[in-house]
Amino acid sequence: MLPRLSAQTITPLYVNFFTHNEERDYCTGKTTDVYCYFPPATTGQQPCGYQDQTVFLRLRGLLKELADTIRTKGAKWNWESDWVFLAGVRSFDKGDATTNSKNIVKWLAESNSSAIEIDPHAHESSYNYADVAYMLDSLGGNPSKVVGGFTWNFTQGNNASAYTWMDFNNGIKGWQYPNFTWKPDILWGAAGYNRRKGQTDHTYDVETPGVWRPKDTSETGFKTHDPSKRLVFLGNGYGKANDSSKTAEQIAAEIITFADSLQQGIKPPAGRLYSYSIDLHQKYWACPGYAARTARVIDLLKPYVQQGRIIWATNTEKVNVWKTQYKEQPNLYPYPQNVVSTISAEALREAKSSLTIVPNPAGDQTTVRFSLTKRERTTLKLYNVLGQEVTLLLDAELEAGEHEWSLVVSHWSLVDGAYFLRVQTPSFSHTQSVQVLR
């Protein structure tokens, strides 16, 4: 049960993890370790790694480990599978003691206390979304009514069986299972199509944290909220990836930056639903320490969760909150492509002119930097999340220019958690959040 909002509650950020696996993941012949691939046990020309039993069983074990991590730490996850992994489940997964004798899909659906929602995902070379939903259902996966990725400005599927996302309104029939019809309610993960290249191009993805009912498939129509339409589009925020190149601190900091902008009113208007998703792409799962890094991300966000500034929610839970608590008020902000990077950059530029904290989250020590345009009496104070002053760090007459101050956590006996640091002079005041995590 998600918490209800009160009139005094700040605008929260609704966050979840999501996972894709693709038709070509872990295919025979991969030699690079960029995505932490590992070779299949056999050397024959296998169609894809998921259909090699050794590869599949290792991925199954990693899936179980991630699910346990997310469930036990109180986070939420939308697991979105293409058909090839499900074919591996059919071939090799009869259940074992780790999943109470259930195959991994059935176990995900039944044994994770609503922490995991299962969405169909399809690249549609030969299986469409209805086929994947059918496979999930036949495996006991209880598929959601969420389209786990779609092309927003062109067609779905191959040339022989092309259709647009508007065809989901009345339901679509399977290509492999034509007697099965799937009728989803929620569109998620809007990928862009580059007409010049004739292919999907993620440069044109709609990376918005908003939610609305799109009017039609045209560029202006998709940007238009039409309350008469049945399908709801839920933005994925910025889809930041927990890949092999980022630390948990970097991933958490990106989310905290946006959560802080909701609190401080830097850009987004208050009183609307904002959605954010963290990518746990299956091709990275074999990277060393992947589950531990995922756990660390959850731990870093915990102080914001405790304050109600971040709320873990699946895709369906987010839309249900939008309908009940936000009365379906559309949020088309921000729409322009890659605008999220712009928001973060703007927020950081504003902060840099007056106050920055590096690193943040802070371990035992962090450096506070600020600039003054003239000589002024300057105070630097630390506040807790209730707005109560914790300590006065600095009170001095400072010259114009750049200044640095080291905050040594142990010196001030600070406990782990969220704080606010405020630099103030007679001519300006600026506040920045800082997390203490050791």
Would you give an account of this structure?
It is a single chain. Helix 1 (53-72) links the parallel strand 1 and strand 2. The chain has helices spanning 53-72, 83-92, 104-110, 129-138, 219-222, 248-264, 290-306, 315-324, 339-352; strands spanning 13-20, 77-81, 116-120, 146-151, 172-173, 181-182, 186-191, 193-194, 199-200, 211-212, 232-234, 240-241, 274-279, 310-312, 356-358, 365-372, 376-383, 389-398, 401-408, 417-424, 429-436. The chain folds into two domains: 13-345, TIM Barrel (Alpha-Beta Barrel), CATH 3.20.20; 353-436, Immunoglobulin-like (Sandwich). With 438 residues, the chain is α/β, with parallel strands linked by helices. Strands 1, 2, 3, 12, 13 and 14 form a six-stranded parallel sheet that branches. Strands 4-7-11-10 form a four-stranded mixed sheet, covered by helices on one side. The protein has a four-stranded antiparallel sheet with strand order 18-17-20-21. The chain is built from nine helices and 21 strands.
